[in-house]
Write a structure and sequence with these properties.
With 479 residues, the chain is mostly helical. It has three domains: 5-126, no CATH class; 137-231; 262-432 and 441-456, Intergrase catalytic core (hpI Integrase, Chain A). Helices cover 46% and strands 7% of the residues. It has helices at 25-28, 42-67, 72-85, 93-97, 101-114, 121-126, 137-147, 149-152, 157-177, 190-205, 211-231, 262-268, 279-291, 295-299, 345-353, 367-377, 406-416, 421-428, 443-456; strands at 5-8, 13-19, 32-36, 306-307, 314-317, 339-342, 387-390, 396-399. The longest helix has 26 residues, at 42-67. It is extended, with a radius of gyration of 31 Å.
Length: 479
């Protein structure tokens, strides 16, 4: 039974007791308060006490805010909590004036019924006496994680840092476009968004930025503004970013990273070819070679996701909450990325050498660049470009084979032995659009996956042909 409830009087009705927190004792003038619940049923009395406690704390917070210096943002939050404890959404006086008259009348009637004075904090909260905070764009960027707690819950430190950086980046770009002035979010106008769009378009036109990246920044800005209005609980807020996007200078099909050529993959499985590359980098890439996993899925593996004592040794790709300090926490790309992946050939040997995972590269956002540079230097990746991309002004951008291309090589190998597209997608953790009642990773499924992995496993050969580094030519305009 809750300590804050006890029966009192002949009728046996419950009374609620509440210890007054230290910071409010000067305001209340007591260390403890009581309130008759009017209930004889324990569950009903408990529900009454919870609501009553919440309401009293909100009232005391509001009184304290009025007697001590406090930020506008904090006063707004306290007023919103107090209004919410009375069953209302907080609205400023301007919002109430432009809204439903019945909403205003119900608030006034409640204040009168409660005997609240016209100058009380309760009246201020219910009738919108506290102005909405003037949150600036840069402030909003720093608060995005608080406004999207559901999205950042399982991110590790590096994932969270990268997630925060996209909001900071676009905010700083808009501020720079406006001459360095950080403005309140409520004041942002379409013309100001167009200034940013024009600067991004210039980068696109000069080949310094992909049009997809430019438009993604504008989409990030749109979401920030939407989250701001949602936090203020506003209905039908303005959208100053509507319809403002960059245009592509050159229309092209969306391309994927070039795959690693087969002769190079054959060189990978000969460990002596990796002598000038550190062991962890080598073994991460060998696991990627035979699993088709993303590099981050491998170097962020927690020890418990590496299952070597099973009949079919495998790794588990899934969302990880981590320990109390967030160690081993990680968020995966999509729900469909959750899967068990059998270990065969070079991948099995690599994981046996690292049964606890890859501590050196865990949460390392620059792994792919480091791996590509190291592997290219020892002849495990082509040095010459695989192709060239047309750029504005007649320029050509070389497209190199990178370490990440091994994932596409894995898919090509599956296709070559007749594995269907949907099955390839499932093996690699793609979202293939299938509707499932639940995820199923039983032994039978793992056995079926093992059969497919064994079909494409790369075996070392005694004599290897020397890979060709002949540069690809830019296709003709007619091609």
């Amino acid at each position: 039974m809750v300590v804050g409830l006890f029966k009192r009087g002949k009728k046996g009705l419950y009374t609620a007791r509440l210890q007054v927190p230290t910071q409010f004792q000067k305001i209340v003038g007591k260390t403890e308060i009581w309130q008759a619940t009017g209930r004889s049923d324990y569950e009903e009395a408990l529900e009454f006490r919870i609501t009553w406690k919440r309401r009293k704390l909100a009232e005391w917070n509001a009184v304290l805010a009025g007697s001590e210096p406090i930020s506008v943002k904090s006063r707004y939050a306290i007023a919103a909590e107090l209004a919410n404890s009375r069953g209302h959404i907080y609205r400023t006086s301007e919002e109430l004036a432009s809204g439903d008259l019945n909403d205003i009348l119900s608030r006034v009637e409640q204040l009168q019924a409660s005997g609240d004075a016209p100058d009380s904090v309760e009246t201020e909260a219910l009738l919108g006496g506290v102005p909405a905070p003037r949150r600036t764009l840069l402030e909003l960027a720093e608060e995005m994680d608080k406004l999207n707690r559901y999205e950042v819950g399982n991110k590790n430190k590096q994932q969270l840092h990268d997630w925060k950086q996209k909001w900071r980046r676009v905010s700083n770009r808009l501020v720079a476009a406006l001459g360095g002035k950080d403005i309140p979010v409520d004041d942002i106008q379409p013309d100001q968004i167009r200034k940013l769009r024009n600067e991004l378009q210039l980068l696109v036109d000069n080949g310094q930025m992909d049009v997809g990246s430019a438009n993604k920044d504008l989409q990030y800005l749109q979401r920030m503004i939407r989250n701001h209005h949602e936090d203020m609980e506003r209905q039908d807020p303005p959208n100053p970013t509507a319809g403002i996007r960059c245009k592509a200078v050159i229309r092209r099909k969306k391309s994927r990273k070039p795959p690693v050529p087969a002769p190079y993959l054959q060189k990978w499985v000969v460990l002596s070819n990796w002598q000038r590359v550190n062991d962890e980098l080598r073994d991460i890439m060998l696991v990627c070679l035979e699993t088709g996993c993303r590099e981050s899925e491998i170097f962020n593996l927690p020890p418990e996701a590496i299952v070597l004592d099973h009949e079919i040794p495998h790794i588990i790709i899934q969302e990880e909450e981590g320990d109390e300090e967030g160690e081993y926490a990680r968020q995966i790309k999509t729900v469909s990325s959750e899967r068990r992946v059998p270990l065969v050939g070079a991948a099995l040997g690599a994981m046996q050498r690292h049964p606890e995972g890859f501590a050196r590269y865990r949460n390392n956002r620059n792994f792919s660049n480091a791996a590509s540079k190291s592997m290219r230097s020892v002849g495990l990746l082509p040095k010459e470009p695989a192709s060239y991309q047309r750029m504005p002004g007649g320029k050509r951008k070389p497209i190199h084979v990178t370490a990440g291309g091994v994932r596409h090589s894995f898919e090509d190998r599956l296709e070559a032995v007749g594995v269907a597209m949907d099955t390839r997608g499932e093996l690699m953790g793609h979202d293939v659009g299938r509707v499932r009642g639940r995820q199923h990773y039983g032994d039978k499924t793992l056995e079926q996956r093992l059969e497919l992995h064994l079909q494409i496993m790369i075996q070392p050969t005694l004599a290897l042909p020397e890979p060709s580094d002949v540069p690809a030519r830019l296709p003709s305009p007619e091609a």
